[in-house]
Every structure is written in structure tokens, then in C-alpha cells.
Design a protein that fits this description.
Alpha-Beta Plaits, Preph_deHydtase, lyase, 275 residues, D-Maltodextrin-Binding Protein, domain 2, chorismate mutase activity, five-stranded mixed β-sheet, binds prephenic acid, ACT-like_dom_sf, alpha/beta
């Protein structure tokens, strides 16, 4: 039997949408109610690959997800970007004036902060998943409560959309990683992006030296994220993404970075999906 793809949330969530676009419309999914549960399902072998949000253009990086990938020694085997459209939805018949509480995923609420400033009487409550709230409202026939979720979720659970596209900037987008316990199998895809992690001694110019190597070997850094090393206060590890045209040059740069940095790990090499 085909193994499932782990997603955060349920059908109708943005993770589900990504799984459908990245694999195929009817891909079998394993619904997980937290990112920690998602990574656990991969480690336990209950899913073959997972879809995990890593950064949103309005709300920023999901820092705990860097730690989850690192701690569980997972590999990044792909990436996918989607525009995110947030909608306020309710049980049919409810009006905006009736709404007292709105539940959604914390990243979703962050993306709609500006919209809710107009309605200070509405309480925003963080929940595990956008679509799961929509399903709960429908199943329990909850009044005075709304969800922030995708249009697909409203359709799936028969809710009415009270306000469309309520995210702060119209260009809202989220980057998702495709993760696995195994390295990417060659499947004919071009490999032109990599995610790396390393630690640096707190020494003048140590990060600049790394950046110079990236430049010298024609690697384009698309993202840098520092993370505190919890065992050593005020010491940081760095997660970087680079794109390149020449895989050999990438390998040469890695060889040098191995000497210049501490604990260099290749978190994955895969196809760049940002056009
Ligand atoms: O709750 C969902 O529907 C999700 O897929 C989670 C999630 C996230 O983790 O960032 C996915 C994309 C959006 O940025 C908002 C929420």
C-alpha cells in the first residue's frame, strides 16, 4: 500500500493544499495536529514524507520547525511555495456583529492582525489548525464563533465566508519544505538548491568569511536564519539556503565550509521552486 504524506492539520488546511499540488490531488495524507507530531510520524515510519511550513511572507520564520528538522535529523527533499488567502468563515446565518471569538492557527492569526484591529471586541484564540476549526464549527453548529481558513475549508465544511482575503498584505505567501528521514533519491529532477546548517565561533569576521566562500563559488544565499544553541547561551547556529547552477562548485564550497565552520550539516539538496 502507498505510504502516506504527513501534513500539519486536516483536509482543507494549507498543508493539504500543498500536498495536493506537490504530489497529486488524491495523495493519501496523515493528518497531524502539531508540527512535533508530524516529525514524529516520519521518524516512526508512519509516513514516507512530510509537508512542513517554514516561513510566511507576513508572519516570518517558524523557528521551532528549524529545531524539529535538526533534532530529528530529517532531510529536506523539496520545497513548495503557495499564495495564502485567509478568509473569515461562520455557520450559515451568522453575521459579523454576532462574532465574539475567532479561532485559528497562530500563523494564520498573525497574518490577519490588521483586519482584526477594526474589531477589538473579537477575541483571537490560537488553535492547532485552520481547517480543523472550520470543521468543528460545522459539526457543533457553533454560533458566535468564526474560523480563519482557506476557501477550500469553507466549501468542504459548508461554512459561509463573511470576509474574504483578510490577510494584511495581498502578496501573502508561505514556503513549505518537503521533509523525509532519507536523502532525496535521484529522480531526474535538477538539483540547484541546498539547505545547510553550521555553527561559528564568536570571532570577528567569521560569518563574513563564510559569505565570501559562497560568493567565490557562485552560490546565491536566499535565506539565513540564526538559532540560539540552547546548551551554550549567546552562541548561535546558522541555517542557510543557497541556490546554484553548478553542483560541483557547490560541493567544493561545502568542502571548504567544513573546515571553516563547526558541525556543518547538509540538511538537503533539492530543486529550487521559487520562480
Ligand atoms: O493551519 C493551516 O491550515 C496550516 O496549514 C498551517 C499554516 C502554517 O503553519 O503557517 C500554513 C500556512 C499559512 O501560513 C498558515 C498556517
Amino acid at each position: 500500500m502507498e505510504r502516506k504524506i504527513a501534513i500539519q492539520g486536516i483536509q482543507g488546511s494549507f498543508h493539504h493544499l500543498v500536498a495536493q499540488q506537490y504530489y497529486r490531488e488524491d495523495v493519501p495524507v496523515l493528518e497531524c495536529m502539531s508540527f512535533a507530531e508530524l516529525t514524529k510520524s516520519l521518524v516512526n515510519g508512519n509516513a514516507s514524507e512530510g509537508v512542513m511550513a517554514i516561513e510566511n511572507s507576513i508572519a516570518g520564520s517558524i523557528l521551532p520547525n528549524y529545531a524539529l528538522i535538526d533534532e530529528n535529523k530529517l532531510q529536506v527533499v523539496g520545497e513548495h511555495y503557495i499564495p495564502i488567502d485567509m478568509n473569515l468563515m461562520v455557520l450559515p446565518g451568522q453575521k459579523l456583529e454576532d462574532i465574539k471569538k475567532v479561532y485559528s492557527h497562530p500563523m494564520a492569526l498573525l497574518q490577519c492582525k490588521e483586519f482584526f484591529k477594526q474589531y477589538p471586541h473579537i477575541k483571537l484564540i490560537e488553535d492547532a489548525d485552520t481547517a480543523e476549526v472550520a470543521r468543528r464549527i460545522a459539526e457543533k453548529e457553533s454560533h458566535k464563533i468564526a474560523a480563519v481558513a482557506s476557501k477550500a475549508a469553507a466549501k468542504l465544511f459548508g461554512l459561509d465566508i463573511l470576509a474574504e482575503s483578510i490577510h494584511t498584505k495581498k502578496s501573502n505567501a508561505t514556503r513549505f519544505l518537503i521533509i523525509s528521514t532519507k536523502k532525496k533519491e535521484p529522480n531526474g529532477d535538477i538539483i540547484d538548491k541546498a539547505s545547510l546548517k553550521f555553527e561559528l565561533e564568536s570571532k570577528r569576521g567569521s560569518l563574513v568569511s563564510v559569505l565570501n566562500i559562497l560568493r567565490d563559488f557562485n552560490l546565491d544565499m536566499t535565506k539565513i536564519q540564526s538559532m540560539p544553541i540552547i546548551e551554550s547561551p549567546w552562541k548561535y547556529s546558522f541555517f542557510i539556503d543557497v541556490t546554484f547552477d553548478n553542483y560541483e562548485e557547490f560541493l567544493k564550497a561545502v568542502g571548504i565550509l567544513e573546515v571553516m565552520t563547526e558541525q556543518l550539516t547538509i540538511l538537503g539538496t533539492y530543486k529550487n521552486s521559487l520562480i
